[in-house]
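Students often ask what a holo structure prediction actually looks like on paper. The answer is less mysterious than it sounds. You provide the chain, you provide the ligand, and the output is a string of discrete structure tokens encoding the 3D arrangement of the protein together with zinc ion.
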Amino acid sequence: MKNFKFVSRIIAVIIVIAVTAVLAVIAADNRIKIPVLMYHVIDEKAGTLSNLYVKTSEFERQMQYLSEQGYTPVHFAAPGAYEGIKKPVIITFDDGYEDNYTNAYPILEEYGFKATIFIITAKIGKPEHLNTEQIKEMSDLIEFGSHTVNHNKLSALTLGQIRGELAFSQKTLEKLTGKTVRTLAYPYGAYDRRVVDIARKYYDFAVTTVGGVYTEGSDRVKISRVYIPRSFTINNFAARLNAVSSGK
Ligand SMILES: [Zn+2]
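The corresponding structure tokens follow.
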């Protein structure tokens, strides 16, 4: 009986030490946090889904803010690649709208900012969408990722259809840009376990529409983003960016 008490005391002490160690590791989590900004259309005028539109003038102020605050826009990269880079941030656009070329790209060029555009490959060259020439011209600063072929909810498709959407769009973009296509954005942010498993096979990174910061080393096919709505003033933008950068 004495022995039993002794052993249980030892076990209790070990548990306390282990819990303390785990808490210390959590507190000292200094993995790099990278805000991934999510845009769609950049235009002064808003269309029907007005929340997907950010004013060109407001976008310009936001880019100016990033520049003034010493942020470094980067592309998606393997853990460790951002070591020594000052305040990395990733700028993304979904759907491949033509205004990304006419309105956003000149501003990105002015600041020398890198960005990522997720293309719906069936829409290339269609009205209001980027064409092949525009995509080629922007590939100095822009990394092109897949937003699938047809922009369907992947979680509603069969395994074969999911594979087709992910593989064919990747092939199309690789042919067009001559570069490896490593990133994917789930249409409508919709995914399930099957989608994630297939994404992991074909892509290095996949982004969601879940709000939050991307912490280096977290699941690379479930990356959270920071949605920038049309209603944001520059103060809202700054506050949101500061909040996510500090892990909120
Ligand atoms: Zn989309």
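Residues 93 and 117 are 5 Å apart (CA to CA).
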